[in-house]
Structure formats: structure tokens, C-alpha cells
Give the backbone structure.
Amino acid sequence: MTKPKKIFLFVFALFAVALNISLYIWNQSLKASEIPYLVNTHVDRIAFDGRGQVWVYGDGKLSVYKDGALVQVFTKKDSPALGGNLWELEVDNKGRTWVATQGYERTVDLAVFNGTKWSTVFPLSDSVNSERALGIYALAIDAQGRAWVGVEEQGLYIINGDIWKHYTADNSDLLSNTVDTIVFDNQGRAWLGTQGGGLNIFDGEVWQTFTNKNSPLLGVLVGAIAFDHQGQAWIASTGQASGGINIFDGETWVSYPGDGDFLDIDIDGRGRVWAMRGFDQGIVVFDGKTKKYFFDPFHLSVGQIGGMLTADENGNIWIPTENGVVIILPDSPQPISFAASILSIIVTTNGLIYLTTLLMVIWLCVAVNVWRSIGFSLLGLPIYLGWIIMHNQRLSQFDFSLFNTYFFINPGVVGTIAGIIGGCLDIFLAKRGSDKRTRWGLVGLVIGSGLSFCFMVVANMAQ
């Protein structure tokens, strides 16, 4: 082996090792903090009671922690509302803990724990048309201790002890009988996000209605609302053709189109909006300063998202996952550019394995002096990156559950593998003394990429 080739191989080896180490360190530095006592725990909901206790629900258990130590555990034996699909978990200013189910075993329950015992506020089968009511979609407790409950297709209930008030689209200005979210502003007014209607603001007497016809609201399905320190409402809305985040201070609207099909949003101490697209579809960050959306793949270090986001009093965002909880601190970094997000996708989807394998193949090609096979392998790299870029015109579309889509089905990977096989065939023919310059490596790359593209087209049509 010539000296220049030895130097090249040595430099190449250092580059491959440095790339793996640097990208690993870079990715690790961007991960949020884990909660040690919740590691390897399936978490769906989190709530804080103002007394230093954290209420955590998952796997049919409602656990109470203080200073990292387990204080108490509740199960379905304590309340029928526990043990199933718990959709809402709230602690009010009186220290009472409220839980609500969504369609568990065809019963829909609202229960409260007063610090001593559990009581069922109502099973909907005894109160409303349970054949139509599939779940409690929204629950909030106001300053007076009244429970505001949004029930699918049943409208809004306001419960104050034995006094019930029931509002529907027929007997009030409620825009839809399915209320997805309820949040109170600093004036005590309830902001109600509805399905297919828009936004209601209700102070108990006067209704205000906002739709995409009488306001700049981007969509009539309002799935999440959060308030910042200035009292502005950040409203995630979507529709059939549009959606995004709307900012409304009670008088002025500012809207930012984007993928607004969010299950939940919350605002950290830095003024960034963290939006959950789905239980396994990652996080989207909307930066209030740059007014831009960023896909955030870094803070899913524990596992797929298991439940709604929760902000604590310090502005930290708690993300429940299937394997624990991560906390996003106000100074936690975020993707700062499109290129950074693309690089993170490569790292977090084990694309680094593909890149390392590609580098090793190139190294071997140099070592055995089959230079033209290097070209066949390298052609797969821009296809790999280009396909990710084209497929992620909106980074928020990225789904961590689609590992195969980004690794095995990617035409760059398939094409490169085909190219390597073709290159090996070239080498074999050369060793056999064949003079024909067939370039089987290039042929294999083209065929492999073409087949992969056809597969993706068929898969997309099937969806």
C-alpha cells in the first residue's frame, strides 16, 4: 500500500470516529433532564398541588410523590375513575384532586379526592345520555372551586356542589357541543376551545364567540389554549385546509399559519410555546421571538410521549412518556435552523449507523483499490439526505414511530446497498478477467432507488 493511501485511510478513520463521537455528544447535550424517580415508569398525566407534591398517573395507578419519595398510591379500588383511560388530572386551589375518564369501559366518570376520601361527582350514565357521551374531553376548576366539564357531544357542565348548570349549542351561544379545552384567564373568564365551532369566552353570564368568519382564527377546531405572562392567549387551531397558532390579547389577533393539529400546548419561562402533535408524533416549538416553528426531536430522550404537557411554577415543561418524564428547562436549547433539525433526524433515527457503514465501505474501497465503487456508494448519500429534506418540508410532520420510513425505506439507503452489491459484482467480474465495463454498481444503485421510490408511492396511495 502506497504512503499517500495509508495517510488517506488514517485521516478517513479519524474522521469517521470523530463524526460518531461529536454527533453523539452533540445530541446528548440537547436532551432535557430526566426525573430519576420516574425512570422506566409509564406516565400519562402529571399535576402539581402547590404543596410540593407531584401527582402522576400511569398504568392504572395515581401516585403521589414529594421530594422524590413515593407518598401514596391510588387505584381503581379507591375510585372507579382510576384504572383506565384517564383524560384529565387537576388539582384545585383547595387542594382537591380531580380526575376524569374518557370512554373507559363505556362509563365516563368524574371523581374528586378531598385529601381524605374519594367521591364520584357523577358517572355520566346516571346524569346524561351515556349512549352518546364517549368521554370527558375538558376539565378545569375555577377560583370558586366549581368544576367546568366538557363532555363529548353533550356540551358544557358547570358543577358547584349539588348545583348543576348545563350549556349546549341549543340553549346558549356555545359554538359546539364538544368542548376540547377549558382555560381561565386572569379575569376569571373561561376560554372554551371547541370542535368545529371555534372559540368561546364565557364569564358565567356573557358569551363571546370567535370563528374563522368573524376573526382571524386559523381554524374552527381549537384543541389547546395557554396564557403567557402578559396575559395573551396562545390558541392552537386547525381546520380542513389551514391551521396554526393564534395569539389573542382580548382585542388584537396575530396568527401564524402552520401545522396546528396539536393535542396540547404550554409556554415555558422563556416564552416559547411547546406543542404536542400526538402521543407519538413528537414536539413542535414555536419561538415567540422569531415567530417561527421548529421541530424538536431532542427532548424525547426517554420514549414516546404518553400524555399531556404540564408546566410547573418555574416555567419548566414536564413531558410524560411511556418510560418516564423529561423536563424542558427555560434555558434548554432548541433547533436553531433547518439544517440542525435535519442533522438531528439523522442522529436520532440511527441514520448515523448508515453514514458510518457508508464511510467504512468507502474506506474498504480505497484499501482494495476499487475506486469506481466509491462513486456508487457516495451517490446514495445525497439521495438519503435529499429524500429527508423533501419529505420534511414541514419538520413538524416527522413521526418518530416511522423509523423504517427514514432508514430502511429511504431510497438513498436502498440505492446505496444496491450500488454496493453492484460494485461487488464489478469487482468479481474484474477478477474473472472480464473486459466489459458494465458499471453494475451504478445500475444497481439506479434500480434500487427506483424500486424504493415506487414502494413509497404505493404506500402513500394506500394511506
User: Anything to note?
Assistant: Residues 3-29 form the longest helix (27 residues).
